[in-house]
Prior knowledge:
Blueprint: H1 6-12, H2 19-25, E1 32-37, E2 40-45, H3 49-68, E3 73-74, E4 80-81, E5 94-98, H4 108-111, E6 113-114, E7 119-125, H5 130-143, E8 148-153, H6 160-163, E9 170-177, E10 180-186, H7 204-208
Parallel strand pairs: 4-6, 7-8
Antiparallel strand pairs: 1-2, 3-5, 5-7, 8-9, 9-10
Amino acid sequence: xxxxxxxxxxxxxxxxxxxxxxxxxxxxxxxxxxxxxxxxxxxxxxxxxxxxxxxxxxxxxxxxxxxxxxxxxxxxxxxxxxxxxxxxxxxxxxxxxxxxxxxxxxxxxxxxxxxxxxxxxxxxxxxxxxxxxxxxxxxxxxxxxxxxxxxxxxxxxxxxxxxxxxxxxxxxxxxxxxxxxxxxxxxxxxxxxxxxxxxxxxxxxxxxxxxxxxx
Length: 215
């Protein structure tokens, strides 16, 4: 087992970790969640406030839609995504997995880790580290052939090259077409279009300001 304190790894990065070392090291019951970016541990606070509300509401709606359509999908409370041939591991805000494909996930039972074959949809809610969502994770999820990747940027933090100018709150939906992502963007009262959930009737405004919430 790798015996290193989380704080020292995050702040001083004394060594690189393999993904397996990261899994063994990962602290339980921490107030933080961790990701592995090319062998380096990255500390991220657990989602709170608006971030948690947006992620929770979106996951709830997708779960309801999966049940309504009798799909074999579920949304795990904890899941790591490991890109192929990389010492990286990401923990999405929301991930939709296909129950029928879990048998082909060799890391699932021991570490709740998937390598792409069972993932149908990944959602990242943007925070201050927006470049990871629009660059690093976008490239990784595309390389894993995850059918759909959704970036929920409720504060409009992403760079202008990604969400346009003037910057404004945006949901970007990347869908795999011929092994490459193509993006559609949605704002305000737009209905979000999804190939994974084609009958979903959910608008951007509903996600950014769930019913009963304070705007």
